[in-house]
Fold this protein.
Amino acid sequence: MKYMPVFALFVLLVFHTACGQNQTNLSKVNTSLATKDISPSPVTDDPKIYSKYEYPDSTGKRLIIENGFPRGGSQYITPDGEAYGYAIFWTRIINGTDHPLELNIDFLDTYEVPSVPGEYFKLSVPPDTMTLDHLPLFNYGLTDLDAFLDDHIHKPSTLRRTVPPKGSSGFYVLKLSQRSKGTYGGGDILRTELILKGQDLFYTASLFNRQAPPSIISEKEIPCGKIDLTLK
C-alpha cells in the first residue's frame, strides 16, 4: 500500500462547499449529546471520542453510540490503476439494555458529492471488529486493506451484527474519494458519526472550517440501516 502525508485526510473529496443543510436538531431525534469535540486529542487510557449519543428504551435502559476521529490520509490503488484517498473512522455500539440488539448497516456503492455534480465518494465497512485497545495502533489496527478493497471497491457495503445485552461491538468505516481529478476542500476538517432516529440509522458527515473557533460549513445525512431498540 502506498501512503500519503497525514494532512491528506483533511482534503479528501467531500463537501468542500456548503450544501445548504441545517445541522441536526438533537432534541427532535431523542438523543442526548454527551461529548462532541472536533479537535484531535491524544489517545490515553481514557481516550476522548468525537461524539457520544445515548438512546433510552421503554424501560429507561440505554443504547450508546460512540464515534471516533479519523485516521489514515493514505492512498489505495485499484488493480485497474484508479487512485483513491481514504480515511478510517470507527463507531462503537454499547448495549445497556436487557436484550440483544440487531444492527443492520447498508451503504450504497457510491454517493454524489454535494455541489460537485459528477463527483462521488464511497463508504465501506470492513468485517473487522474495532476494540478500544486498537486506538493507539496505526490505522486503529485495521490491516489487509488492499485485499479488502480489491474485492469491495465497486460494491455496496453491509454490516450485520448482534450486540449482546450489557455488551458492545465496534466497527470501522472507510471513506474513500477518487484522487484522479485532484483534491478539494482547502484544508477543511471532515468528521463523521452514526446516529439513531427511532429505529433508523443515519451516517452523518460534517465539514468544519479550520478557523478558530471551528464552525460547521455543511452536513450530509445518509440513511444507512436500522437497529431495533424496542423492548422484547
About this structure: DSSP finds one helix and 13 strands in the chain.
